């Protein structure tokens, strides 16, 4: 693997899932692979799981890790040709080239503005780093994609599925704040790579990017969508057509034990209890959110392993 | 040792002090104990000594360390059954379970509000983590206890005492801000475990928790209390009865060279010079605050060592 | 080397440059030197390059690294005899002595106020740490000096020079904000140690400290100064005589391809494009700013190596 910007950078999804599950059994078996290799983690946004699991993954492989909250330094400029006489102190051209010299791999978290759709879609932060860096880039959630989360989700479904082709439903949920589309986008893209029966359910006005959804069935009737589901992935996102708007906080879309039926409940976390999903679901054995979060380590680890192997 | 929430988690205080003093002589002699073990340090409040000494202690044992300022992520919810539609983005139930999967030990610093006595007494932050985490918890100062500091203090007294049963006085001092009771509480509790003659002196209105103080002599006359002391531990705390109030900033309670007599001067640091204690004390040979701070490393190291040994 | 506060702590500049270039070829060849040695990095100001390159350098030598943004803790007091009843919670006397016990080397970044010239010139932050610490101090940019940058610059010129005594010009550039003199000061001091033909050019009112400049030729005509230069080091600084004032933002002083001639372009970064220097320079092969930034690692590494060797 040369870099991990989006899930299509994985050549063989079933193979990488298998390898992640092997790493989970023996997390320290490649500890010499990362000797004298450094992962620089750049955070433009806050993080708990991604921060800790990716750092852990790198250390499991014997890498050194250096973490920089970029906002603790200064604002970067991304536009070409700007007269930098205002709030940006360094151009990403320099920053990316410079950091590449201190790093063997650079991992980046940079959320969308949710105000300028075209700019967000351009993925200017991570793509600028990819363009100017001389080392591989790993996406720790960008404006439109969260491929480490999606790989985690795929590992979790592969581990827990009880039939060859499980029914998987992505179900929108209400949330007090406007959230990005990254998790939903990458989940849908990843599910297409697995042998699952995928559908999506959300209120009107919440259609995801049609280029991603394509011919996946979409239901506005949540109950109809959830029928006989094996895995229900619950996630809020703001409107994509009326970009970044919160069109509904309808509590009827909250996931409940009753709606869930016998399905496994999935969520990327953090999750707002009794807003996105009721306690009874999260506190039941059907919830696999903790197992999912555990798999974050091995998703990151298999990606870093593939990248390190390719460096040699 | 299964965890270190409060000093009563130590089975044998004299034994652990002895072991800490051994570690101080050979800090790297157990460096293989922490191989492939990770300490996650969670800070809800600022730290200098605790941060550096605990990180150092873990690395002396060969552990990996991951540090998260939780406020850089988001606010946690601690109440059960809440509809999380406001300022808390993740419930401690999830956070504690998730972080446990990236950590072998979790260390936590979480100060009290000093506004809600019952809530502070409930130790809801550290106790919630203890309840939901699947790995041992170490207290790096909670609302009502600072057991790593108390262990440090015990080590220091054990190292420096010149008689079998030294006279130890805990003396309140003025301070511009309202401070917690954690250090004073844990110091009193720890002194009961040592063979010392303990007394406490403070102005009226500054009584500590009677469940902790019990039958320890308390003086409102500082000079009377300090007479023939071998160790004087100076510390400010806010009122416990009029919870979190600053009832006095009476400069007469500042520790001076004259009042100190021939005693050793102790303080947990940071200390405000010429407010809590005059320069002449801190700059004299009677001050052992630097030695105390050094022992923070070995207090943390012996605790982590005991916990790691118990994990095996 | 006992410590690295300013470049005159280097005994033999050509020798240390040579050693840095050797380290660059084999960065991990002294990895056992730092075993069980800890570098504590204290930041009073933001950092990107210095933070990452110094951390990398320490790890290349096998050291453990602990990083503290001091502003995340509390304000330190530097004055003697103060009654600390206001905003400072800990005196540098205690802080420096305490941190020394957790560190084998302490590296410090502390920028000037640019409002109180005498106080800035006193270098009270780094000098207080030097005075009270019991371990070596490394300057990661202080009020008036940036000796790691200057060593980097010397390494870069030594690597890239194409004649025995190259002509080196330090050229002032406009900037929207008032910047310190540290980089310019240390660059000038370092160039005196090399066999180069140094001159300085800046608008009137921008004279650097005469004790540093001494008999180095100074031109107010930039074109005259730049004639036949081999290396042009561009840097903004605020006025030193009218201390901390921005007297000019004259765009005519921006470095351009035309003015640069055939010289190599140097800058310490971060650099504001099209304000300090035009894109055409930075994007050309004449720019060596990325190579400079790379050498930050080896400047820090050779300094840490010298200090570690002296500890033994």
Q: Largest interface: which pair?
A: A-C, 31 and 30 residues
Counting helices, strands and paired strands, the structural category of chain A is alpha/beta
**Uncertain ranges of chain A:** none
Gross CATH architecture of the largest domain in chain A: 3-Layer(aba) Sandwich
Work out the number of β strands of chain A: 11
Task: Please describe the structure with a list of short key phrases separated by commas or semicolons.
four-stranded parallel β-sheet, alpha/beta, Rossmann fold, 2 domains
What is the structure about, briefly put?
The structure is a homotrimer of 312-residue chains. With 312 residues, chain A is α/β, with parallel strands linked by helices.
Describe, in plain words, how this protein is organized in 3D.
3 copies of one chain form a homotrimer. Chain A is an alpha/beta fold and 312 residues long. Chain A has 2 domains: 7-145 and 295-311, Aspartate/ornithine carbamoyltransferase (Rossmann fold, 3-Layer(aba) Sandwich); 148-292, 3-Layer(aba) Sandwich (Rossmann fold). Helices cover 36% and strands 15% of the residues of chain A. Chain A is built from 12 helices and 11 strands. In chain A, strand 8, helix 8 and strand 9 form a beta-alpha-beta unit. In chain A, helix 2 (49-60) packs across helix 12 (289-311) and helix 6 (147-160) packs across helix 12. The longest helix of chain A has 23 residues, at 289-311. The first copy, chain A, is globular and about 55 Å long. Chains in contact: A-B, A-C, B-C.
